[in-house]
Design brief:
The complex is a heterodimer of chains A (242) and B (424). By secondary structure, chain A is mainly β. Chain A has 3 helices and 17 strands. The N and C termini of chain A lie far apart (71 Å). Chain B has 2 domains: 153 residues; 187 residues. The two termini of chain B are 23 Å apart. The relative contact order of chain B is 0.12. The chains are: A mainly beta (242), B mainly alpha (424).
């Protein structure tokens, strides 16, 4: 009986959510300045043949009109005191051709994370969340084709994943308490749908530019009804030392 | 001239407190020390390749018994970490045998009865396996094999006399140190704590000093070394000891940098971010991180890590001056042809090589082989410093008037007053 009531309440909440006015927040993150050159990755004997062309690190991936890829954009203020159900479908972090795909992504606290090994050999998955004193850190062995599921309960921007077998493999996941986040595409564009009316702080966080000492660049946005909101960001990289 | 006593195995005892001449034991101690050096080198390779956590479990390897892990799976970082574990197991075994060998024929009962008990325990758990879904057949077979090997070895165990008590105690200390080192390494993996790696690395260096000293104590050079015979007017032995302790501090600093992945916290040398002393304010550190590019995506560096590396650089200079002073003082006090003078000169050359390797580590962007050679050369520097200090405390005496028992240094007392108790 209790279960039925819970399901009905969730459905009602979801229906209300769909019907309530909500806006789409879009924008672009632009890089100002010239980033240092990426470093070519020297693969091991197993991984090298999977990459006939050169592969480099992915610290500053700049696209059209200096759009910056892999920037995590999220609502950092304005959702306090509200609870959001974690989506039932899991997010997937894949290890393929000795690289993590995607490099940066987001998920909700409580949502399932599927970690796949699509390669034909072993990896290890070493996650280093810092929230709650690293209580949810893990280091898993993964055989070829293996899939593991994990869940994080503490929000954190960004949780680091690495493979210590192949020391160039890294990925980052933003764990959020609300569903309003996005990662910029190859041209630096992002889109956050279904944001209810209200006053928010929107933050863009680029791993290399902002590091761990900064929470990123932020701006206040106001959502009124279903009126679309545009918010652009510029992140700056300093000139190289003389 | 007094007759040199002959022991029951035919070896001779030349001076009180010294180990008997036992070439086989000497060679075995040398093998153990060499294996320890190889292990330090392998440990350096593990951290240089960022492979410390490439094998997530311990004491197993990806669920396999350590010794049965298929060779086809030794890929990438697993190769370095797994090889390190295998070599560590070898060093553990060699150290255990060495510690038992120092007890001579007295180890036989322990090997025989301990081996028999271990064999029976292994066979018992094999014959009556638990209903647990996690089978430990491989481990149980290993337990039985270890017991059988110990039992068998008790029948062919050397019949030599026990070594002096102080040396046997060192053997026991080495045994416990190697066990502690193994557990520390394992906990670093299972607890995911970089901090434990710092202690693991530092204990490794100390263990190598201990092993090197145990080789020294087995040599004819040590046995023939006269008891305090030369006056140490300038306090040379204290200089040697102080320089060795400085090297130990320097290696601990290096281990901290290495296990915080901050070896390149300052990417240039001899300048530091183009300056004599780098800026460490928050804005500067952010800028450093924005421009810092490495294949291994280590966490952003901090002001503390920059200061730590500056401390490491300054300490390198202090060590160079200190060891140089030791070499110069030894030459002046003992003459250029004295063994200690020659050893001190070699020590100074080693420190110069170490500084060049440290600079090369930065210039090459922490190339794994160079960074590992830097670790290994550091281990040799500490070990040589330790040996020189031991020899100096054995050979040199406080100047006349200061040589009363109350003022004797503790180490001198230990080395000079140790005696072999002969079995009647």
């Amino acid at each position: 009986m209790k279960k039925t009531i819970a399901v009905l309440a969730t459905l009602a909440l979801a229906g209300w959510w769909q019907m309530a006015p909500a806006a789409e927040v879009t924008g672009k993150v632009t890089l100002k300045g010239t980033p240092p050159p990426e470093i070519p990755i020297t693969f091991t004997d197993q991984c090298g043949p999977l990459h006939p062309t050169n592969v480099t690190t992915r610290r500053y991936v700049v696209g059209k009109d200096n759009g910056l890829k892999d920037v995590f954009v999220y609502i950092s203020k304005g959702c306090e005191g509200k609870t959001y159900p974690a989506p039932a479908e899991p997010v997937v972090l894949d290890q393929t051709q000795c690289l993590y795909q995607p490099y940066v992504m987001g998920m909700m606290a409580g949502q399932k994370l599927q970690i796949k090994n699509s390669d034909t050999f072993m990896h290890n998955v070493h996650a280093s969340p810092l929230a709650a004193d690293g209580a949810e850190a893990f280091n898993l062995p993964q055989n070829a084709g293996q899939v593991n599921e994990k869940t994080f309960t503490h929000p954190e921007v960004l949780v680091k994943f690495q493979c210590d077998v192949h020391n160039w493999m890294f990925a980052y996941i933003g764990v959020m308490s609300n569903p309003y986040f996005a990662v910029t595409d190859a041209d630096g564009n992002f889109k956050i749908p279904n944001l209810p009316p209200g006053d928010y702080t929107l933050t863009a966080y680029h791993l290399k530019t902002h590091g761990k000492t900064s929470t990123g660049v932020s701006q206040a946005i106001k959502v009124e009804g279903d009126k679309a909101v545009t918010a652009n960001f510029t992140v700056e990289v300093p000139p190289p030392a003389p | 001239m007094a007759a040199i006593p002959t022991l029951r195995n035919g070896s001779t005892l030349e001076t009180g407190g010294n180990p008997a001449d036992n070439p086989a034991l000497r060679r075995f101690a040398l093998l153990t020390a060499a294996a320890t050096f190889a292990l330090v080198w392998m440990g350096g390779l593990v951290t240089s390749h960022g492979a410390g956590l490439a094998v997530p479990d311990w004491p197993n390897t990806y669920g396999y018994n350590l010794f049965f892990f298929p060779f086809s799976k030794w890929i990438g970082g697993i190769f370095f970490e797994h090889t390190h574990r295998l070599v560590a197991s070898g060093v553990g075994l060699l150290t255990t045998i060495l510690a038992l060998w120092l007890y001579g024929y007295k180890s036989r009962p322990l090997l025989r009865w301990g081996g028999a008990a271990t064999l029976l325990a292994g066979l018992a758990v094999l014959c009556f396996p638990s209903q647990s879904p996690h089978s430990h057949t491989g481990e149980n077979i290993m337990l039985a094999c270890i017991g059988a090997a110990a039992l068998a070895s008790s029948f062919v165990w050397p019949k030599c006399e026990p070594s002096p008590k102080w040396l046997r105690r060192l053997g026991v200390a080495a045994f416990f140190a190697v066990v502690a080192q193994g557990v520390l390494g394992g906990l670093r993996v299972t607890l995911l704590k970089d901090e434990l790696g710092i202690f693991h690395a530092t204990l490794a260096q100390l263990f190598f000093v201990l092993m090197s000293a145990m080789v020294l104590f087995q040599t004819a050079f040590w046995r023939k070394l006269p008891a305090p015979a030369e006056s140490d007017a300038r306090g040379l032995r204290h200089f040697f000891l102080a320089a060795t302790l400085l090297i130990l501090v320097q290696l601990a600093l290096g281990a901290t940098m290495r296990h915080q992945h901050a070896g390149l916290a300052i990417p240039d040398f001899p300048a530091a971010y183009g300056k004599i002393w780098p800026d460490t304010d928050a804005a500067s550190v952010v800028k450093y991180n924005q421009l810092r590019m490495e294949v291994q995506d280590y966490p952003p560096i901090t002001a503390f890590q920059i200061i730590l590396q500056m401390a490491h650089r300054l300490m390198a200079g202090i060590v160079l001056v200190m060891v140089g002073t030791c070499a110069w003082l030894a030459r002046r006090q003992l003459g250029p042809h004295h063994r200690l003078s020659r050893l001190a000169a070699g020590w100074f050359c080693l420190i110069v090589a170490q500084i060049i390797l440290g600079a090369a580590t930065i210039w090459t962007g922490k190339k794994a082989d160079i960074a590992t050679a830097h670790v290994a050369c550091g281990a040799l520097s500490l070990a040589l410093g330790g040996l020189i200090s031991i020899i100096a405390f054995r050979r040199l005496a406080a100047p006349a008037g200061q040589n009363c028992p109350a003022q004797k240094d503790e180490l001198t007392t230990l080395l000079a007053s140790s005696r072999i108790t002969l079995r009647s």
